[in-house]
Write a structure and sequence with these properties.
Cas12f1-like_TNB, 4-stranded antiparallel β-sheet, Transposase, 6-stranded mixed β-sheet, binds zinc ion, globular
Length: 432
């Protein structure tokens, strides 16, 4: 069984001034706690929630006596999450400041600090006692209510001061059963494409994420230069143009569509998905041509990590098992001859040093991920015995060995299944 969680955002109508003031005060105190804790935790190098709570809980209780005691608890959780994120960026050399900035605050609530007050209102514990607020429900909310999801004990409240509204993040959870996999579908994620191996055939879905990130990077730079010359550095006009770029939306779009196609292909066959176990830091051979460290990190996050996370999340929803395999050397060794493959200068096509056949780098990675899983190496998947390629390199053919079917983004990105995309004969080719 796996726990699947989804956040649903609901808003209250504008609240009476007096009532809203209670929440403004609450947020102020909560923010103070988080700021204080974050400073302390960074200074002392404490990133564990348990440790932070052990060290600071008593002090906080003394300082904020009229606040319900569990705010000290959730503030510690909030602060330690911020500190962990900050310390990670710091380790990667990506954080310039000494301390993380606490800009946006949402108040973290646990089961002692809120409870549902019927289907369209919640009760929140404040320094003025329990306060009930109604919220506007919407179709998405009812869908979760009606489809067997239940409310988790965590919730977050954000204040919209301009409209005197509360924005409430509710979390719905559901337990989903995983099936026993009948086979495996391996996935190799790259900065510009995702290659999958299904029943002996490799498909390369073009994502062009690196190109997208780079394209936006240069566009943003141009806009910045142009507007900074004309207006104030903090000009609203610039921000408006920047917002119109919608980089995040486009990246998310690609990410979720890729994940859906892959998970559905696995689900239809009742297969498990095999993914590379990723390191926190981009491996040297990944996107090393990008010099700018921050930019490289962004591309890595968006393509490798972002796509994997999406696959993992969609897989949970469908109950598709996911297996993580150590990616070491997966693209360097021939899956048939177990011999090194020689890649020409920067080429993604290489020649096997023993058999002399040609391979596409990403296809090699997929085959080797599959074998590692089947041989029970670095995974908990059932071992299926020896390599199915032994003695019969049939799946790879003789001429186009290890060459994937390349599918352009505008083809697969229309929410189609892999089959539907492939059945469109004239529109995809195998040229690389
Ligand atoms: Zn070979």
């Amino acid at each position: 069984m796996a726990r699947v969680a989804r956040t649903v955002v609901v808003e209250t109508p504008p609240l009476p001034r007096k009532l809203f003031r209670v929440f403004v005060e609450l947020e102020g105190m909560y923010r103070n706690m988080v700021e204080q804790l974050t400073l302390y935790a960074v200074r002392e190098g404490v990133s564990s929630f348990t440790k932070l709570k052990a060290l600071k809980y008593r002090e906080l209780r003394g300082l904020y006596q009229h606040l319900p005691s569990h705010y000290a608890y959730t503030a510690c959780q909030d602060a330690s999450a911020r500190v962990r994120g900050f310390l990670r960026l710091k380790r990667l050399g990506l954080a310039k400041k000494e301390y993380p900035e606490i800009r946006k605050v949402s108040i973290w609530l646990d089961d002692h600090l809120w409870k549902p007050g019927g289907l369209t209102s919640i009760k929140i514990a404040t320094h003025e006692g329990w306060v009930t607020v109604e919220f506007n429900s919407h179709r998405q909310y009812w869908r979760y209510i009606n489809r067997g999801w239940r409310l988790a004990s965590e919730a977050r409240v954000k204040l919209d001061k301009r409209n005197r509204q509360l924005i409430i993040n509710l979390m719905f959870v559901k337990e989903v059963g995983m099936y026993e996999p009948k086979g495996h579908l391996s996935v190799d994620v790259n900065e510009n494409n995702v290659t999958i191996l299904v029943d002996g055939t490799a498909y390369l879905l073009k994502t062009d994420i690196e190109k997208l990130v780079l394209g936006y990077y240069y566009r943003r730079k141009r806009i910045q230069e142009k507007y900074d010359k004309l207006y104030d550095v903090r000009s609203g006009a610039k921000r408006k143009v920047m917002r119109r770029l919608k980089e995040r939306k486009k990246k998310n779009d690609i990410r979720w569509k890729t994940a859906n196609i892959i998970v559905r292909a696995a689900y239809e066959r009742q297969y498990a998905i095999v993914l590379e176990k990723l390191d926190r830091r981009p491996a040297n051979n990944m996107i090393k041509r990008i010099r700018d460290e921050q930019l490289r990190h962004r591309i890595y996050q968006a393509s490798f990590r972002g796509i994997q996370k999406a696959i993992d999340e969609v897989a949970r929803k469908y109950g598709v098992p996911v297996v993580y395999v150590n990616p070491k050397n997966t693209s360097k060794t021939c899956p048939i001859h177990n011999a090194p493959i020689n890649y020409g200068n920067g080429s993604r096509i290489g020649r096997c040093s023993r058999g002399g056949e040609l391979w596409h780098r990403d296809v090699v990675a997929c085959w080797n991920l599959l074998f590692k899983t089947r041989l029970g190496d670095g995974s908990n998947a059932p071992s299926l015995g020896a390599s199915p390629l032994d003695g019969s390199p049939v799946p790879l053919g003789s001429t186009a060995a290890g060459e994937p079917t390349v599918i352009a983004r505008d083809l697969w990105a229309r929410w189609k299944s892999l089959e539907a995309t492939l059945n469109n004969p004239k529109k995809h080719g195998t040229t690389l």
